[in-house]
């Protein structure tokens, strides 16, 4: 006998009312199905057309706090907060009159349950309708998601706190960092005039370099926060794609040369203009090419390509300029590829750890232009980053 079913009501059709049909290869008996339903951790409740409870499993007892005997013949509305009851009754009646055999409840809004002690809790639920001896029976499978929502709320709070802290740090650090940069530059200018010793000038140059790195990190922290909060703004205008590629490579060439690397550029002379925020596109290049230089060993090669093409990855009919940065570095393990755009992700091949924000910011900036970006890699061979930006009309 299935728990909660009185002898005179719905004892035999448990396999229909409470469980999906088993696969033909699994000869489950009514008794086996009854036991599985009875001990399920989810609340499984069956109600008649009057929406009165005719089945209440162990999971339902644990979720709602009623015993099966206490729940029998109660209105289903007793398990719902008062402000949901009228709407829920109407929804169940409409479902009963529809052609749908089953549906998920609360698709448009959160649903809630009501425990015996008066506590309201968030839930997920599905409802199924079956006909048993010419009568309609509704079976509800409900899951208490209180613990999950608490964890999600805690995570959201942690993320908000972290982002607020990043914003405060970015704001409060920028002024002293700018002061260090200005004073360092002034001292170095005096060194050019012979008014500061060579040893002092060398030390101040190191201070200036560190301050510039701090300034770049502050900018990254601010950008990644704007991206995740939807506050990042770009200001696209008509720009020459070839010029942007050349500017980016000219800026980064000294870093490549310092590692005896080749930085090769291949661009189509007929490249059309793009609609883009030039400063932000140069930032994308800086992050992507900078990564390639950092991870490619001395003597390696970085290739930067640009070509116009109809985007094979989207069916919007627009033309895009595709930019490709390929390096001869150690590559990325296949298991790490899905994480490369996560912020703070660090490659196992990093010689000197960075902020882990470069690709996350690049992705946010490219997508803000209605473009796309992807990474391919063959471990031990190379890594290729492709991103595309829309052509100007």
Task: Please characterize this protein's 3D structure.
The chain is an alpha+beta fold and 393 residues long. 42% of the residues lie in helices and 22% in strands. It is built from 10 helices and 13 strands. It has helices spanning 14-17, 30-39, 58-64, 68-71, 82-97, 146-192, 198-228, 241-258, 278-295, 358-368, and strands at 43-47, 53-56, 102-105, 111-114, 120-132, 135-144, 237-239, 262-267, 274-276, 301-310, 319-327, 372-378, 382-390. The strands form 3 sheets. Strands 1, 2, 3, 4, 5 and 6 form a 6-stranded antiparallel sheet that branches. The chain has a 5-stranded mixed sheet with strand order 8-10-11-13-12, covered by helices on one side. α6 (146-192) runs antiparallel to α7, α8 (241-258) packs parallel to α9 and α9 (278-295) packs antiparallel against α10 (358-368). The longest helix has 47 residues, at 146-192. The radius of gyration is 32 Å and the shape is elongated. The protein starts with 13 loop residues before the first helix and ends with a strand. Mean pLDDT is 82; it is low at 1-26.
Shape by Cα distribution: elongated
Instruction: Tell me the series of helices and strands, N- to C-terminal.
Output: HHEEHHHEEEEHHEHEEHEEHEE
Rounded average pLDDT? 82
Question: Could you say which structural class the secondary elements and strand pairing correspond to?
Answer: alpha+beta
Major beta-sheet overview: 6 strands, antiparallel
Cα(first) to Cα(last) distance is 72 Å
- Record field, number of beta strands: 13
| Share in β-strands | 15-25%
Note poorly predicted spans.
Answer: 1-26
Q: Roughly how much helix do the residues carry, as a percent range?
A: 40-55%
How many DSSP H or I helices? Answer: 10
Radius of gyration: 32 Å
